[in-house]
C-alpha cells in the first residue's frame, strides 16, 4: 500500500532514500534548503538510473515513473500530511536537532519520524523532541549507496514504541531492503565494526607495514571485500570517518581514537569525496 513519505536532506543519502521509496510506488516529498540543491539531486538520480539501463536494471519508462513520484520542496511545512519522514541531514547533533524540532511542529501526531544517523544514539536525538513524540521516533540507518546496499539498521530509542519498530521494519522490507534490529548505542553495530577496521588499516600505513593500495588489494582478494578501506574512505570522505570515530571515542574510549595520520590528511585537505583529493583521488 502506497504511503506518503518525506525525506529531509537531498544529499547523497537522502536523495537515494527518496528514490528507493519512489521505486516501491510511494508518494515521496524531498526537502532541502534551496531549489538548486534539489535540482542537482534529481538530476543525479536520473543519471544514476540511466547508467543502469545498459546493464538491464531499468527501462526508460521505469525511470520516468520513479522520478515522477518524487516531488521537491524547500518548505518543511509541506510535510504536514506525511506518514513516514526520514531525516538525512548533516551528521551533527545540533543540525539534526533543529530539523527534528521543526518536524515535530509540522508532522501529524501519529507520523513516524526516523533519523538516518550513522553514529549518534537515537535516544540522544529523541531528547530534542517532546515526550509525546518520542514513541514515534526511531533510527533507520541506510548504507551508501542506498540504491544498491540492502542493509538497514533499525534502532529503537529508549521510548520508541513497538508499533513504531514494526512500522519501520515493514517499510524497509517493502522497499526491498533487509532490516536488522540493533540496540541504541553510539555507532550502532556496523559502524563499530567498520571503524575499528579502518583505524587499524590506517595504523598499518602509519607503521609502514603496507601501502593503502596494497592493503585495499589484500582486503579485496584476501578477505573478499568488494572495496578496500582506503577506497571506501575516499568515497564517504575521511572527514566523515574522523567525525564518526570521535563520537565513538567519546563513548568507548581510546580504541576509537582517530589515527593521527587520518586527522592530518583531513586537515591538509585530503579528505576525499567526489572530485576531491583523498588516499587515491587526485582531485582533478
Domain module count: 2
CATH architecture of the largest domain: 3-Layer(aba) Sandwich
CATH superfamily of the largest domain: NAD(P)-binding Rossmann-like Domain
Structural class: alpha/beta
The count of β-strands is: 8
Total of DSSP H or I helical runs spanning 4+ residues: 11
Radius of gyration: 19 Å
Helix content: 40-55%
Main sheet: strand order: 3-2-1-4-5-6-7-8
Element-level helix/strand string: EHEHHEEHEHEEHEHHHHH
Morphology: globular
Q: What is the residue-averaged pLDDT?
A: 95
CATH class of the largest domain: Alpha Beta
Assembly form of the protein: single chain
CATH topology description of the largest domain: Rossmann fold
Low-confidence stretches: none
Task: Note the gap between the termini.
Answer: 46 Å
| % residues in beta strands | 5-15%
Largest sheet entry = 8 strands, mixed
Provide an overview of this structure.
The protein has 284 residues and is α/β, with parallel strands linked by helices. It has two domains: 178 residues, Rossmann fold (3-Layer(aba) Sandwich), CATH 3.40.50.720; 78 residues, Orthogonal Bundle (N-(1-d-carboxylethyl)-l-norvaline Dehydrogenase, domain 2), CATH 1.10.1040. An eight-stranded mixed beta sheet has the order 3-2-1-4-5-6-7-8, sandwiched between helices. Helix 9 packs across helix 10. The model has no long low-confidence stretch (mean pLDDT 95).
